[in-house]
């Protein structure tokens, strides 16, 4: 026997007609005359006999002329066979261009097929084919995709046999799609009828029977009405007069909005009888139920013991989904009815986090310009994340999103923690995307899209549940999505996030799904789906049609993100309502809410920004004159040689304007804001034109400006600005620039940029390498994954030419915004204080391990005497670099000599170790003397050139050599390590912290220490670690 789900199939009986005198067997297959002759019996009576068997003995042959790959073939239709087969001779003569595949590609075990005689039926493999049934068979041409087994030739004229694996698809394509059976005079009527009856016999396990609409009698249920329908019941077996419950079938093809009201009934003795069904039409339009449609199932009633009433919700109430109507003016009775209607279609809505839809109507393909495989090494996973990653991979595997791989391709992953604590796998598809041929599938024209919405009064916006995971990958391209991690080698069965052409594939899918509804009753722009209408009744009808299309394609929505029956919605960066399409106020919010400048610094920032657009603003100089006059009385930016000896009194640059900010100044400020947020400065986005995005970041905020060249002039489309959070303010400069790019593209201006080609202008030269060769940390990989679905190129431009985005980033934002990271850090410091400083009499000195735990964010368990505490901590060696001014206030104590007790070495010991190093001794001696080393010392000091390059950054503090480092406006001091101590931080900051990657390890070392060629040392350390394996 084969695996579960496969059963015996019985080949059809092929019975040739009895030969007629004067005819050959071959002639008899094409001609079927009925010759009657009279034969005298022994009893003297004359019997009438025939050479053709009577119909009660032999029925008509069930065949159909089917087109296979352009070849019309007379095929045998066998509802008793579960497989479709073609003889080897036909395969060789007509299908040899197909690759004969092994069933091991589909099944892990051997598939065994038996004939009606119990003998095994051999097969050679399978092929994927399309069977085209002609219009005269069912009244309409239908193409059926199927898998066909190739079997050895048996007999002189082997025939193609079409089994239920193909006929079931034929049934689905016709009956379920057209909601009706074929006309009874058509040849395919009996075949469809047999399949229908077979399905009805297997509706669900445990059902005694089913109730359907009577034969050939369509039923119409009027809008909003409830009717009693006398259905035709069929019961399997003998049950006598049994009390049963009649309820909606578990799997039903009933139209949406038609409810079957459960009821109790007494089952008669007969197998077939009439049974009343209560039907309720929840919609505002008539519903027609096709004949023979299954309405309900019949189940036996089981007695249960009574139970005390409970205040908990019933199971039915707990399963009821809630839907977002927002501030919709929909009447309460309408909201209640629409909620019931939507709950009647649970298969369209995701029921849990991993409940994705699944469609194979459109598959994602990856065509490469260079087919050469590439393979990246697995990046390490932090030990704390291993269990979470393992669980996440198992979930993806169980729900069919991924599978194990043996691909020659391998992309690396980065594990990122979400805000809720769960993990997310970010696949680095940069290499794959660089080799992918771009899909030129055209996206809709936004002007046409918005013109179609004009005049509508009701809108619903639908959001698909993880839309990409609902799209199946083309089998031949799954290997290209392979990714490697320390927990295995996997590839995607569904379309992953971050691959090029994913938006085009999704647009193609949604347009095919909506079909004739698109642009007539609904609009699709990639994953943005909006339904529009003039009246409530019309909107309800269109909503049901869209939901039925999604159901047909196997797609599922996220109920909590959908918005139903709204009079105003945001769509593609605009506000759509009955009054038309308007500009989204958020795109000019950064200007409309620009704070009034309080001092010279803030005024210069505003004028620098507005001056970027002065060529668009008529009389710009006249309007801004009061603001320019306000800048008088401050010290010049550059010292002048004129006026030596004069003592001028200036306002301090940080001094508040106070009463000097006059009414004229306020009017000038307001007028400039108004000019910048109206035409001709601000334009309406044209989807046919390319976009240019300017981004910038400062130590206080982020800024972005979006442009298009229209009518020969650059027009601003949108502005964006925000302040930094407390944790973001600690980012280095290059990471802030990356944050500005990711925030502008994915968060603020996505509606304009998604699915289009655009150029990003930045004044950060390192940022231009992120899409190709940049080495990134985990957070940056998450940002890169979010950006990977956008098509853009990066261009560098000097900061002096990027005043627009620079001004937006420096716009006053008030105090730094609080965020989860900074709140968590404060809580850690609080817990540390409560635990270690609660008894000042016994705790004289703060332990270095605990102080360093506050400065770092790695969690371990630290035990002290009889108590155990979970605190963030790092290894002891890092305390080498901690200077007293780096410790939180109140966490440092001094000994008798005034030295902070912070680590394993005192400053005196460090001075001795540095001077014991031959190279450092020469550097320190010249620093103390104030003279730079001569080139003649190159033999004594091999790294002389490197030391000379850093000479201005080297300084002695209490006799200890440090290198000053300035980043993101903050100055830190890196301890210069002698050669004998350099291996210690490498081991501590790499091995002890879970074998971090090169870039992360280098960041940790660089933040604390310095020595020449430090990057090369870190890379060599990690290469050796990877070769020898972690200890």
UniProtKB/TrEMBL annotation:
The keyword Ribonucleoprotein does not apply. GO terms for biological process: DNA integration; proteolysis. It is an enzyme of class 3 (hydrolase). The keyword RNA-binding applies. InterPro entries: Aspartic_peptidase_AS (IPR001969), DNA/RNA_pol_sf (IPR043502), Integrase_H2C2 (IPR041588), Peptidase_aspartic_dom_sf (IPR021109), Retrovirus_Pol_polyprotein (IPR050951), Rev_trsase/Diguanyl_cyclase (IPR043128), RT_dom (IPR000477), RT_RNaseH_2 (IPR041577). Belongs to the beta type-B retroviral polymerase family. HERV class-II K(HML-2) pol subfamily. This is Gypsy retrotransposon integrase-like protein 1. It comes from Alosa alosa.
